[in-house]
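Input.
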Amino acid sequence: MDPDEAGQLRKIIHIDMDAFYASVEQRDDPALKGRPVAVGGSRERGVVAAASYEARVFGVRSAMPSVTARRLCPDLVFVKPRFDIYRAISEQIRAVFAEHTDLIEPVALDEAYLDVTHNRQGLATATEVARAIRAAIREQTDLVASAGVSYNKFLAKVASDFRKPDALFVITPAMGPAFVADLPIGRFHGVGPVTEARMKAMGILTGRDLRALSLDALVARFGASAPYYYGVARGIDERPVRVNRVRKSIGAENTFSEDSSDLDVLAGRLGPILDKVWTAATHKEVRARTVTLKVKFADFEQITRARSLTGFVGDRMDLERIVLALLRETFPLRRSVRLLGVSLSGLEHGPVPEPRQLGLAL
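Output.
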């Protein structure tokens, strides 16, 4: 089990808004209700940011190229994203959370973990809290949230996904280990498509199969992720709900209207991306030690190049110098480029320092 520091069994809720961006668009435009909707760019170079459940029936998913989505669903309606609206609604939803607990860990605009072991309203069970939150969200925003309730974060996340949309599902301590044993490995939070394929190739199809491996065997196969897999395969997850989640990276990317393999053209296209990244870092008062360049080619294969510094990135010009050096390293190119992205990691909070000369770590 996963008790808190006082030895009391924790009560964790995972809230996940159902098809959040698409649902907001359907709410605000009645003509979109009941229709397959994709939030994102409709042009050939576009990418789906979110899909309504009507679109998902056809296999449309987020991060899918728009041309693929259109091929799967010819009647798909594309809507441009309105992130200012999504952020405002997200703040409204988080205010509902705060009526019940201070222990809120936002994961994204549409998703959060709540520790309601001690809830402000004095409700007897976490299930009652989840039910009250879902009702308040529906009343105040006319949107639907699914909720998972359990005694740790892993199981709460699994529970919120289990019967979406418009679901409230509870995994009790008595249910936990057996529930995980029968869970397909692809439904384990933290097991992505690549790891899922790797596990299946090893004969790991369910939680029961994963549980059969010793910690040493998992370490040999999965390295630093092994302790997490070992625990959740047994229904154990001791991660706390973190009120202030540490941001691990800041980044931005852009898909171009035309591919190019020309260095000068690509270098010119980096300008708006660098502006966005540096503005975000300055606004959030974080300093970075590592700069990463992402390059996606016309055939959708991608590579990354990174530099780690002995100090911090000094200013926007310093960032540009590093990124251009990384870009040059990718030349000569055998394929044209459709997307470039830049991210900062190795972050520390605090005002960005005055510009200074930095050396590269060996």
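DSSP finds 13 helices and twelve strands in the chain.
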